[in-house]
Amino acid sequence: MSNEKKLQMAFVEGLGIAADSDFESLKYRGIEEWDSVAHMQLVSEIEAAFDIMLETQDVIDMSSYPVAREIVSKYGVSF
C-alpha cells in the first residue's frame, strides 16, 4: 500500500468518512466529522499507520489533509 493510501485510510478510520472522499479538500472543522475528539483519533491512526510519534506542535498545526501530508513527510515518510 502506498504512503498516500495509508494516509487516506488513517483519515477514513480516524474521522469515519468514506474512502472515496475528496481528501485534498478536507479541513479541520470543515466537515462535521472532523471535530476536536476526532482530531485526536486521527492523530492516533496516523501515528499507528506510519509508526511515528507526532510532536505536540504538529498535532496542533494539522489543519487539513495537505498539511497532514507535509507533517508526516517531516518524519521521513515519502509521498
Automatic annotation (TrEMBL):
It comes from the Bacteria. This is Acyl carrier protein.
